[in-house]
Amino acid sequence: MKTYVKSSFHASQLIFLITLGFNLPFIEPNTDYSTLVYKNCANETFSDESAAASSYQKTLDSMFNQLLSHSSQSKFFRITAGNTHGRISGLYQCREDITNQDCHVCVTKLPYISSTLCNRAKAAEIQLSGCSLRYKINSLSLQTKDQLPAGTIKYDAERKDCSRERVDMDRFDELRDSAFVELESQVFVRHGRCTVQREMLRAMAQCEGVMGEQECIECVKHAASIAKEACERAVSGQVSLSRCSVSYLYGQGGWDGFAGGGYPYLGYHNGDDGYHDHSGRLGVILGGGAAAVLLGLLLLVLIWIARRKDG
């Protein structure tokens, strides 16, 4: 006697799974705010095994813990930790356009990255795509030319990101320049962060929370001039300096503000060595996953057909 297995797999379920499989290649990944933008480490370190070095390390750890404790409630926090002879001043700042939870997750990565890249340095700056950290031992008289190495690790380190796609529109330069002028005039008035729009062009600027008015304005003006020169008529562009950032986007694409590590919706960014295309690698990953799902669905269809014949 044959034993028949009644299939509980209905056509509606099959259609749903096939639809899901075809849509998988278009699912966008979550933005990673922990991409390293730049590091900046002082030459002086407390690398010996003295009691003073141990005390500094404990103070630095305490400062990190206090910064972390505030990162889920505030996008910016500044603190001075330690006693009179070993004070360390530090701060973190997150992008204003990310959530408090994303800010907290980003800040939690800063102490490890700092200790790895700037091991026991007496002053350091770390900028990730979503947040940044600065600290300095108060007794250290920090002079850029004396304490910080030149080249790619420098006080006013900059990062330029420009899309490969170009804008074919006569008034683009006029719109971009007008938006940048408003950013320069309004960024400090709007508490260090400003977003403006000119028709289909959106632009954003952000300054570090402790910057004075003139310093903030000059920083944004400098970043904007770099963006104009470096990106020219690119659809999107971003310039990150050590204490401010400027970015813009023309068109209807997704808006990721200060992406730091590039523009996910375009798949391109450029560093010191030119343009890089990440969209192909992402397409292979997602396309491969979708292909595996579709093969599984095909197998289910064959099983379903076989069971119907048996029935």
UniProtKB/TrEMBL annotation:
Q: Which Gene3D superfamilies match?
A: Gnk2 domain, C-X8-C-X2-C motif
Compartments (UniProt record): Cell junction, Plasmodesma; Cell membrane
Q: Which Pfam families match?
A: Stress-antifung (PF01657)
Cross-referenced CDD domains: Gnk2-like (cd23509)
Question: Keywords on this record?
Answer: Cell junction, Disulfide bond, Host-virus interaction, Membrane, Repeat, Signal, Transmembrane, Transmembrane helix
| GO cellular component terms, A-Z | plasma membrane; plasmodesma
Q: Which residues form the Gnk2-homologous domain?
A: 34-140, 154-253
| Recorded topology in the membrane | Single-pass type I membrane protein
Q: Which residues cross the membrane?
A: 282-306
Q: Which GO terms describe its biological process?
A: plasmodesmata-mediated intercellular transport; transport of virus in multicellular host
Which chain positions lie within coiled-coil regions?
Answer: none
Q: Where is the signal peptide?
A: 1-29
- The reply on keyword Transmembrane helix is yes
Cite the PROSITE patterns for this sequence.
Answer: GNK2
Per the record, the similarity remark reads: Belongs to the cysteine-rich repeat secretory protein family. Plasmodesmata-located proteins (PDLD) subfamily.
Q: What is this protein called?
A: Gnk2-homologous domain-containing protein
